[in-house]
Amino acid sequence: MEIVEGFGIGVVVILGALLILFVRRALVTRSGGIIRLSVRVSTMLDGRGWSPGFGRFAGDELRWYRMFSFAIRPKRVLSRKGLAVERRRLPEGQERFSMPADWVILRCTSNHAPVEIAMARSTVTGFLSWLEAAPPGAVSPRMASQDWPAA
Q1: 123 belongs to a structural domain
Q2: pTM score, two decimals?
Q3: Number of domains in the chain
Q4: d(CA 73, CA 104)
């Protein structure tokens, strides 16, 4: 009888954990603007340290959430203001085994520290457009300096 009770408790715990993961994902992805994104969290070994997840654009921030986490808060937040793409490259060595073949790795510099992110080649264009655009409601510095004729 104890074995059946232990098995039942184990099943309930597993189902509860799965439910929490799905509810978390639904809360994070409810407002759209989601991209598949991997972030390199460790550089101790070449080609290793990549963590899969998804990014959500929220105003002038890219919020990155780990794929397999119970946390509702983002693991990392990249602000558009201090973020610049330093270089772009294809996966090399061990990285080719940990991410899809059509992904591109971007080495970015941030206010805090350099960060490497990987995303699908088709997503890079949208990411770069978001990075170069002015935040919602703001005027781009390039546009503000020009005198526009009256309509």
Answers
A1: yes
A2: 0.66
A3: 1
A4: 26
